[in-house]
C-alpha cells in the first residue's frame, strides 16, 4: 500500500525535526531560548471528555504526541496529524509515548468493543503496528530510546517488554505483595531499561477488602524487582508516573476519600530515607507529579483543588519542579483557567493541557519552561 501524500509530507517534516539537535539552549552555538506557551492545533469536531485533549509525551525537536477530539495524534510544531488507526473515524485512540527517534506508542479501542489494542507507529507509516499479546485494558505504556516498549494491563500480574515489536521479557509482580496483587498503573521505562509501576495489594478486612498500592521497580539489568517505600505515611495509593535515567522516580501519594494529592520523589538506593516530597504550590492544597524528563530530572505535574472546590477558589495549575527547591507555577493559557503538565523534555520543554479564554481545552507546550516558572506571590 502506498503512503498518502499527506503522510509522506508529515514524514519528511518529522525527519527534519528529528535531525535537529534537541539539547539545552546553553549548548555551544545554540540560539538563545525564547520562552513561550503555545496552543497546538486540533482535529475538526467537538471536544470530547476522554481521552482528554492534550500532549502526553515529547519527542525531539518540535515533535509531540497525544490526543485531539478523542483520537490519537502527533504534532510537528503546531500542526496536528491524525494517526491511521483502523476505522479511525469511529474509534477512541490515544498516543501516550514517543522516543527520540520518533517511535510512538499508543492504543485504540475497536468499534463496538471494550478492548484497547496497543500499537506502535512512526510518522508516514500507512498503518499502526499492533503489539502481539499486549494488554487489552491499558494501565500505561512506555518507550525508551533503545526502542523498547513496555505495556501493562490494568488488573494484570505482569508487565510486558517488547523489542523490535517482539516480546522480550515478562516482568511479574513481586510475590511479597501477595497473590492478589495487580498492576494498577505503569510509570514508564528509562534509558537503561528500568521499569516502574504502581501495584495494588489487597488485604482482607472486616466486611470487605482494603487496598493499598506500592511503587515497584524492575531493574533493566534483569535483577529482582524492588518494592519501593510507600509515599507519605503509607496506607494510601502510591502512584508512580515516571523514571529518569539515573533511577529517580516521581509520582504522588493519593488519599482517595479526601482526594488529597502529595507530590513524591524516590531516589536510589531507595532506602527508608530515599523518598520525600518536594512540597506543594503555595496557592493550592494539593500537588501531584505526573512526569519527569529523561536525564535532567525536571519533574512536572499539577497543583490541585478538590473537585468540589475547583472553580470556586481557583482552577488547577501546571507546575514544574526543577529537582531542587520549591515547586514552581507555570503560566496559564488564560487567566483563571485550568492547566496541567504531564510531559518534560531534556531541552526544557514541558507539555500538557490548558483551557483557553473560551473555555476550550487545548494541547499546549511551554518552551524554555524553567524561564517561565515562578513562585506565586
Q: What tags apply to this protein structure?
A:
377 residues; four-stranded antiparallel β-sheet; mainly beta; disordered N terminus
Assembly type:
single chain
What class would the helix/strand composition place it in? mainly beta
H/E series: HEEEEEEEEEEEEEEEEEEEEEEEEEEEEH
Task: Categorize the overall geometry.
Answer: globular
Uncertain segments are 1-29
Mean pLDDT over the full residue set: 89
Largest beta sheet: what is the strand line-up? Answer: 1-28-27-26
Query: For the report, how would you describe the main beta sheet?
Result: 4 strands, antiparallel
What this model shows, in words?
The protein has 377 residues and is mostly beta strands. It is built from two helices and 28 strands. It has helices at residues 5-18, 369-372; strands spanning 36-39, 54-58, 63-68, 71-76, 79-82, 92-98, 104-109, 117-121, 129-130, 138-143, 148-153, 158-163, 166-172, 182-189, 195-205, 208-218, 226-227, 237-243, 249-255, 260-266, 275-276, 286-292, 299-304, 317-321, 328-329, 339-344, 350-355, 361-367. The strands form seven sheets. It has a four-stranded antiparallel beta sheet, with no helix packed on it. The chain has a four-stranded antiparallel beta sheet with strand order 2-3-4-5, with helices on one face. Strand 8 (117-121) and strand 9 (129-130) form a beta hairpin. The N and C termini lie far apart (58 Å). The relative contact order is 0.12.
What's a concise summary of this model?
The protein is mainly beta and 377 residues long.
Helices and strands in order:
Elements: H1 5-18, E1 36-39, E2 54-58, E3 63-68, E4 71-76, E5 79-82, E6 92-98, E7 104-109, E8 117-121, E9 129-130, E10 138-143, E11 148-153, E12 158-163, E13 166-172, E14 182-189, E15 195-205, E16 208-218, E17 226-227, E18 237-243, E19 249-255, E20 260-266, E21 275-276, E22 286-292, E23 299-304, E24 317-321, E25 328-329, E26 339-344, E27 350-355, E28 361-367, H2 369-372
Antiparallel strand pairs: 1-28, 2-3, 3-4, 4-5, 6-7, 7-8, 8-9, 10-11, 11-12, 12-13, 14-15, 15-16, 16-17, 18-19, 19-20, 20-21, 22-23, 23-24, 24-25, 26-27, 27-28
Amino acid at each position: 500500500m502506498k503512503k498518502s501524500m499527506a503522510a509522506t509530507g508529515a514524514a519528511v517534516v518529522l525527519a527534519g525535526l528529528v535531525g535537529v539537535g534537541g539539547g539545552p539552549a546553553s549548548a555551544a552555538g545554540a540560539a538563545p531560548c525564547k520562552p513561550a506557551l503555545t496552543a497546538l492545533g486540533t482535529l475538526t469536531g467537538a471536544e470530547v471528555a476522554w481521552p482528554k485533549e492534550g500532549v502526553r509525551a515529547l519527542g525531539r525537536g518540535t515533535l509531540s504526541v497525544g490526543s485531539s477530539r478523542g483520537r490519537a495524534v502527533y504534532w510537528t510544531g503546531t500542526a496536528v496529524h491524525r494517526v491511521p488507526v483502523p476505522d479511525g473515524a469511529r474509534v477512541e485512540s490515544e498516543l501516550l509515548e514517543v522516543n527520540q527517534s520518533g517511535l510512538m506508542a499508543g492504543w485504540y479501542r475497536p468499534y463496538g468493543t471494550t478492548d484497547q489494542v496497543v500499537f506502535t507507529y512512526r510518522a508516514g507509516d500507512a498503518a499502526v503496528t499492533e503489539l502481539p499479546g499486549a494488554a487489552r485494558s491499558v494501565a500505561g505504556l512506555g518507550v525508551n530510546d533503545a526502542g523498547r516498549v513496555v505495556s501493562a494491563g490494568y488488573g494484570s500480574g505482569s508487565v510486558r517488554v517488547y523489542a523490535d515489536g517482539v516480546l522480550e521479557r515478562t516482568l511479574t509482580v513481586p510475590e511479597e505483595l501477595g497473590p492478589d496483587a495487580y498492576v494498577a498503573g505503569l510509570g514508564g521505562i528509562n534509558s537503561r531499561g528500568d521499569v516502574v509501576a504502581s501495584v495494588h495489594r489487597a488485604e482482607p478486612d472486616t466486611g470487605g477488602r482494603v487496598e493499598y498500592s506500592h511503587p515497584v521497580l524492575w531493574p533493566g539489568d534483569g535483577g529482582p524487582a524492588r518494592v519501593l517505600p510507600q509515599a507519605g505515611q503509607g496506607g494510601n495509593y502510591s502512584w508512580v508516573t515516571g523514571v529518569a535515567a539515573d533511577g529517580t522516580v516521581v509520582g504522588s501519594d493519593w488519599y482517595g476519600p479526601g482526594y488529597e494529592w502529595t507530590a513524591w520523589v524516590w531516589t536510589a538506593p531507595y532506602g527508608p530515607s530515599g523518598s520525600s516530597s518536594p512540597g506543594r504550590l503555595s496557592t493550592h492544597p494539593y500537588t501531584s507529579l505526573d512526569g519527569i524528563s529523561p536525564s535532567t530530572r525536571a519533574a512536572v505535574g499539577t497543583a490541585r483543588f478538590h473537585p468540589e472546590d475547583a472553580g470556586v477558589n481557583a482552577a488547577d495549575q501546571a507546575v514544574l519542579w526543577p529537582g531542587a527547591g520549591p515547586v514552581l507555577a507555570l503560566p496559564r493559557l488564560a487567566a483563571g483557567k485550568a492547566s496541567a503538565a504531564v510531559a518534560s523534555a531534556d531541552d526544557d520543554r514541558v507539555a500538557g493541557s490548558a483551557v483557553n479564554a473560551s473555555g476550550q481545552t487545548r494541547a499546549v507546550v511551554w518552551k524554555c519552561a524553567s524561564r517561565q516558572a515562578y513562585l506565586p506571590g
